[in-house]
Write a structure and sequence with these properties.
Layout (H helix, E strand, L loop, with lengths): L3 H31 L3 E8 L2 E6 L3 E7 L12 E7 L2 E7 H4 L13 E8 L2 E7 L1 E8 L19 E7 L2 E6 L1 H4 L5 H36 L11 H24 L8 H15 L9 H8 L13 H10 L7 E7 L5 H13 L4 E8 L2 H6 L7 H4 L7 E3 L5 E3 L1 H5 L1 E5 L11 E6 L8 H14 E9 L11 E5 L2 E5 L1
Parallel strand pairs: 2-10, 5-7, 11-12, 11-16, 12-15, 16-17
Antiparallel strand pairs: 1-2, 1-8, 3-6, 4-5, 6-7, 9-10, 13-14, 17-19, 18-19
Helix pairs in contact: 4-5, 8-9
């Protein structure tokens, strides 16, 4: 039978053990705190916990009564004046198709001011919680079960303070490549270059071995056979260039542009020399492609170019002119096209469906201002001056354009189309997607419809022919 002293000894031992365990736990917590190398701002959407890298958060704010902008995407709820900067406001709940309670006019929204690249925008969420520090190594790969949103928008999941957080990937949500993706693209390109160099060296060694085995007997040397070897080397280099263009700039060599690529490669060889034709960086890819892009691409149109487009447009007496402008980018092309169409068809109602997968471009396009120089040029009848002294497009022009976040190769519900304006778009899509989109062009266009393709793109559609007009590639039936 245990004595009282025995029981006291056991109890004392247990107490010491508990104290030792508590000390170990404290030391472990201290170690964890010391190892924190990643901080995130946590918030909730429809009762679930989410987070964003704190380095992407410029500030946290409460705001309301955002200025409504017509013809924007459903999840763009307006714009906000952030100390002089007009920024788009995006409701993350609407973006992820999460139900949002009805807003009241004087309600203040919880807002994260986020930066990505050189862009700033506001993101509305339900509740902003706190800043949580973690070890980056504790972030687990995403899984569809961890959220009600598309897995491609999730950077990872992490457990902290007994809660499971879905860590959002801001770059993917807003259509930008992360530094890690850029690094991988460069690595892939360099690996392919090394493989091709090794293959070229092996082929050269094999040729030298063949020559040595054949001796100096010129009778056995067949000069005509050298030409196929040379062509084979050129094709190999050209294939490498094609791979590099795809890796660095997502440019896909296909029947749409292969004629231009071959001609450009010949020029490139002369410019750089036969030994330096390989593309080793994004800068090389940009130099190679600098003559590919159509006139006035990603810029305000000159009066001369605008006149070319106007002359290339067919006669059309319809009361409604429907235009599809996939790959609209920042909006230069859409606004310029809207002005020319209004000039060409003054009595028609113009409706332009401008689509792009760059969320930032699409969100900012309705807010676009026009430069003073362009506003005083041929655009003058279509612009107006704001209270702040900046120039913007008239309400009629703005109302004619519907900017939408949409992947053009996916199914859409567009009405029958009069004009497809898709310059330089096809070449930056996978070849399968190119064919899909061309088929859709053919199906959606009216009998008297036209397709504007890139100046250096050639499309093949049964029954459609190229009507080249001063460098503007127009296809008609």
């Amino acid at each position: 039978m245990a004595t009282i002293n025995d029981k006291l000894s056991i109890l004392a031992g247990t107490t010491e053990s508990s104290q030792a365990l508590t000390t170990d736990q404290l030391n472990e917590e201290k170690r964890k705190v010391a190892a924190v190398d990643y901080k995130m701002v946590t918030f909730s959407l429809s009762g679930k916990d989410y987070a964003i890298d704190i380095m992407r958060i410029k500030e946290i704010a409460k705001a309301g009564r955002f200025t409504y902008v017509p013809n924007t995407l459903p999840f763009v709820i307006g714009v906000y004046n952030l100390r002089g900067d007009i920024i788009p406001i995006i409701d993350l709940r609407l973006f992820f198709n999460i139900e949002v309670p009805e807003r009241e006019d004087n309600t203040l929204e919880n807002m994260l001011i986020i930066t990505t690249g050189d862009q700033i925008f506001g993101v509305v969420v339900d509740v902003i919680d706190k800043v949580v520090g973690i070890q980056k190594s504790s972030i687990q790969p995403p899984h569809p079960l961890f959220g009600d949103i598309n897995i491609k928008y999730i950077y990872g999941v992490v457990e902290a303070e007994k809660r499971l957080y879905v860590l959002l990937d801001v770059d993917r949500i807003f259509g930008m490549r992360s530094p890690e993706e850029e690094r991988k693209l460069a690595e892939n390109a360099m690996n392919q270059m090394k493989m091709r160099q090794a293959a070229a060296i092996a082929a050269e060694q094999q040729r030298e071995s063949s020559k040595a085995a054949g001796g100096k007997n010129k009778a056995t040397e067949k000069k005509p056979a050298e030409e196929p070897v040379k062509n084979k080397e050129e094709n190999s280099d050209l294939n490498f260039v094609a791979d590099s263009l795809n890796n660095f700039r997502k440019f896909v060599v296909s029947p749409v542009n292969e004629e231009w690529v071959k001609n450009r490669y010949k020029e490139w060889s002369k410019e750089r020399g036969a030994e330096r034709t390989q593309l080793q960086s994004e800068a090389d890819a940009d130099l190679f492609l600098n003559t590919f892009y159509s006139e006035c691409s990603s810029a305000w149109w000159t009066e001369e170019f605008a006149s070319k487009i106007e002359k290339a447009l067919p006669d059309n007496s319809a009361k409604n002119i429907v235009v599809w402008n996939p790959g609209c980018g920042k909006g230069y092309e859409s606004y310029s096209l809207a002005c020319i169409l209004k000039k060409r068809y003054p009595d028609a109602k113009i409706r332009i469906y401008s689509h792009d997968v760059d969320l930032l471009n699409i969100s900012n396009a309705p807010l676009m201002m026009i430069s003073d120089k362009a506003a005083s040029d041929w655009y003058e009848p279509f612009v107006t001056k704001t209270v702040s002294g900046d120039f913007t497009f008239t309400k009629e022009i703005k109302d004619s354009i519907m900017f939408e976040y949409h992947n053009c190769v996916n199914a859409n519900n567009l009405p029958p189309i009069d004009i497809v304006f898709a310059r330089d778009l096809l070449s930056f899509l996978p070849e399968v997607s190119q064919n899909t989109l061309l088929t859709e062009f053919g199906e959606k266009l009216k009998g008297n419809g036209v397709i504007f393709a890139g100046a250096n793109e050639r499309i093949q559609l049964p029954g459609w022919t190229l009507k080249d007009s001063s460098g503007v590639a127009v296809y008609m039936k």
